[in-house]
Amino acid sequence: MTIHTGANAASGTRANPDANGASPKRVNSDANAAGGKRVIGRKGLALIKSFESFVPYVYDDLVPPVRGRYREWSGGPVHGTLTIGYGHTDGARHPLKIAPGLRIGERRALDILDVDLDQCEEAVNALVQVGLTQGQFDALVSFAFNCGLGNLKKLIVPLNRGDTAACRAKFDGYVRSKGQVLRGLQRRRDAEQALWDDRYADAEKPSEPVHHTAEVDAPEPKPLTQSTIANGATVGGGFTLAGLGATVWDKLNASSDTMQQAVLSSAGKPAFWCLVLAAFACGFVWWRRKRMQEAA
């Protein structure tokens, strides 16, 4: 995908979108996406650029901007994630690696952003199994660009079950970095939810750098308590293995990638299924006792 640039910016503050809210680059929509794959639209790109800031030098994204400018990182201790251009980090797709003293112009920053966004678009296209509006797609790409693909996989669990409202609500959980709630992350999640709703006019599009980091904490999963198991396993007053299975599956999807890989690897061993059956049997016995106690 090609993004056509305008004039180069010379400062550490962002370049504003055009009068129509569109970015001068990456002007695509699902109607002209190559190979039938959806790409981010004008509005989604403009929102990402407005939050990410064009900064021509390397900065630490956990250090708040001062008077509308990030402080240049000179090689000292790093508190957050080293970033340059439009939110580019070493973990993004473009091969540019960050080093002290590195500087880039806006034209190059836009080219880097183009490559970095390809990765996010491809992930949303591959992982989401239901139809999306352009606003929903753009919101998910923005979320993935900021929060990472691991968090995207967790966010879309209810979406792939067809529960779009629950997915939209889950945006609110991704507002912490290293345990600290950041107002900048809250503002970005609010803007992404407005984009999700196709309310682009209501979405905040900042004109100054917004303090929000690339390292975003996933919400802490709720513990799998007996009450949680009972609620998931009881449908209409009866015990169902499908209900319990759905509850456990949701908890697995909300867990770390390492935990998911360990469980999936163990699934091919007979001992694993013996343990699963034993767990279901224990759950059934516990449920029966609880029902008998309630009936007594």
SSE layout and pairing:
Blueprint: H1 42-52, E1 55-60, E2 82-85, H2 106-127, H3 134-147, H4 149-155, H5 164-170, E3 176-177, E4 180-181, H6 183-196, H7 226-233, E5 234-235, E6 238-239, H8 241-254, H9 257-266, H10 270-295
Antiparallel strand pairs: 1-2, 3-4, 5-6
Helix pairs in contact: 1-3, 1-6, 2-3, 3-4, 3-6, 7-8
Report on this model:
The protein has 10 helices and 6 strands. The chain has helices at residues 42-52, 106-127, 134-147, 149-155, 164-170, 183-196, 226-233, 241-254, 257-266, 270-295, and strands at residues 55-60, 82-85, 176-177, 180-181, 234-235, 238-239. The protein folds into 2 domains: 30-202, Orthogonal Bundle (Lysozyme); 226-295, no CATH class. The N and C termini lie far apart (68 Å). It has 296 residues and is mainly alpha-helical. The strands form 3 sheets. It has a two-stranded antiparallel ribbon.
